[in-house]
Amino acid sequence: MAEVVKLERHDVIATITVDYPPVNALSAAVRGGILGCMNLAIADPEVKAIVLTCAGRTFIAGADITEFGKPPQPPTWDEFMAVIEDSPKPVVAAIHGNALGGGLEVALVCHFRVATENAKLGLPEVKLGLLPGGGGTQRLPRAVGPELAVKMIVGGDPITAREALNSGLIAEIVETAAAGGQTFARKVLTNRLPVRKLRDDQSKLAATKSDRSIFTNAVASMTRRARGLEAPFAAADAIAAAIDLPFEEGLKKELEGFNKLLRSDQSKAQRYAFFAERAANKLAGLPEGTRPRQIERVAVVGAGTMGGGIAMSFANAGVSVTLIESTEEQLKRGLGTIQKTWEASAARGSIPGDAPAKRMALIKAAVGLSNVKDADLIIEAVFETMAVKKEVFAQLDKCAKQGAVLASNTSYLDIDEIASVTDRPQDVLGMHFFSPANVMKLCEIVRGPRTAPDALMTAVSIARQIGKAPVVVGLCHGFVANRMYDPAFKQADKLLFDGALPHQIDAVLTKFGMPMGPFVMGDMAGLDIGWLSRKDRGVKSEISDALCEAGRFGLKAGKGWYKYEAGSRAPIPDPDVERLIDETLVRLGRKRRAISDEEILERMMYSIVNEGARILEEGIAARPGDIDVVWLYGFGWPIYRGGPMYWADQVGLKHIADRLAFHAKQTNDPSLEPASLLKRLIVEGKILASLA
To answer: Model confidence over 323-342: pLDDT tens digits?
Structure first.
């Protein structure tokens, strides 16, 4: 108990301090420590009030999820919480950092709550495929009302201390947690404030009881993007129980929902994804003691779609950045796009009304590469050709100060070849952001053969600082994300020649859980880009080429693989496209056959798994989980399926290899032959997860 929780008395105030780095998770030892200290403080006649607080950088940031699914360790959750809630002496939770999940649930059984200005409070269990299982769905609606409770529990996003104060979740904002908690506890005693047990308070449920639409509208809003997910709807049902049932019955309903989700495949996949993202931060092969370089100034070269989005990512995180273009006109156009994007977000209520002006102020605009001279990190985001990249890096080598990290946003090209035009290849690496860069979370950090360890660590550190999920990958064409996507896209193209239609293929992928299929994605990106690239390389794709020759360039043209009504982004299947495909196949002497949804899914998704196995075998990715993080955050792989490598283990490697071999033979396509790693793991009776 003394190791992780300590009890101190300051006159009539007992302070219980949790000290369990790094985030004071509610392990059995912490629960036991708090319970023991609570009992001592309650039994001490000199103690009149109790403050629960934490050492380190945060309040209790959640339950210890490594204990999930294991035999429960004493003390039980109910026993531990009851001692706090039923204390005859007022208990004040003094919060700093994050009070999340089980941490907020502990604060909710305390009679009062105070927090520092920087604190965040939330119940994010839904992001692990769960719902709060410690009374959160029953007490939070009583603390803040069902509408905000739905936002916090079904949406899973925390609120600030200021929002918590306005909603009544906390009583005061304090300068420091422990001292502020003690001061507030003395105020409770002096003013004889009544002890408030949330379980007994129905006042904030009254409005929703009389007007159910307050609740149903909030749920509809928060589940709008929850397609395929179970936890948000189960969480909403648990909150409904807080409105409709007595407290104890609501708790039973919550526990039933929690236990059902805990055993579900979805939650297992989502918890796997949580740990995979954490593991991706562990960099292999770096010398002991490697530290990131100090980054005070950042420059982005190129104010187009990608460069502008990257600059926005820095400004969104409160980091100033210099955006550089070759002409005033291009710079003005790029800044205008950034401004419009933020203003549209503010109009939707996604960001505060004053955010666009504040964020624009963080972007310094400049013409000419000489403006990189003071930057510690320079990210190039110019046109995706080797010649252009080399030209820019040769100039950066002359303009950038020594020790600056030089990063390319290339999505395919050889980082070492780009580095070869500089006298500092050790400072060169890839930082591959995904489009739109201001929204997408993934950043592939591409390690060249000559990239210095501290440069690599710097890129990972800065990516995390701006809210990205960095994954370090090795050097090959397309790295991990695009190298794995290409075989699936090629299968989609081949499926057209075999008889499938674009809307059928897209529907199979969206039913699987992907945000969109390859043909909708192509229309959004613009089909003319790939067409021009194929022309340059002397490559043909008869159906795609015929589409472009007919002026069907995608969404921007109002027609591509689909047709689009004026002002709408909704794709509508077009009989003209089916006719064009038929005519092309007749001209090529090909006959359409009936293609099942199962064949589409297997040829496309198993191709992704197959290429991932090759990537692991070559050491391009360090772990299967790294590949899964790439797909979760780069392409919107459904999180409830855990990522392609995790999913492959659930489906069964032998089944996948057998089906790949079958389709390779049926279609005469050697690219579908199972990877040697899959074959080896099957023979050894192992799964991909064994490689972690």
So the answer is: 999 999 999 999 999 999 99
